[in-house]
Protein: SAM-dependent methyltransferase
Amino acid sequence: MSDVNWHEQAREMWDEKASFWHANSREMWDSGSRKTIVPFFEQHVPEGRSVLDLGCGDGYGSYKLWQKGFEVTGVDLSHEMVSLCQSRLTEGMERLNFLQADMLHLPFEDQSFDTLMAINSLEWTEVPADAFKEVARVIKSGGYMLFGILGPTAGPRNHSYRRLYGEEVICNTMMPWEFEKMALEQGFEVVESKGVYKQGVHNSHLNQLSHELKQSLSFMWLFILKK
Structure:
């Protein structure tokens, strides 16, 4: 599958899913699977830093970072998602901006941002290593990068199931440990990482497990990298 075809299909899919995502995103960020992301980000990034929110969806995660005092630029492949983002903007929100772009060809100069948040976005690129390099290009040296990678128990992995029949798919089933290895191979430091789990998985289940087994139970794995 060519680069253009893959990403065009991904854009069309997320355009179609924009309304469904918008109906559920606030709950995910406030009390669901994404509720720990912004607090985790704040532990490592001081208030006031510039943030590139890559694959921002309808912009609610970007909005939550802006509320915490960050200067946020949200980018998404989907035109419909960016339209939803724009509808969130009101007068006096100058430090929150949104635009449509492909993460393989970001319209920013090198080292344009202090830091990055990218949640469930690299999985939707044809060659994640290429996307990772392009994303890292626009982050300042010494900057922190927060990635969220879907774990083995995440339902969205169904998008890649039809590859078993030899069909072309537009979702890479990247495992957390694969992302971690890729980041290390490209010279990045893993500062901290943590898992997000489905209901029913408790600390008592996890305490005696190795790092790899904890990742294997995760719905999502969060990484803080340092450039």
User: Anything to note?
Assistant: DSSP finds eight helices and seven strands in the chain. The longest strand covers residues 189-196.
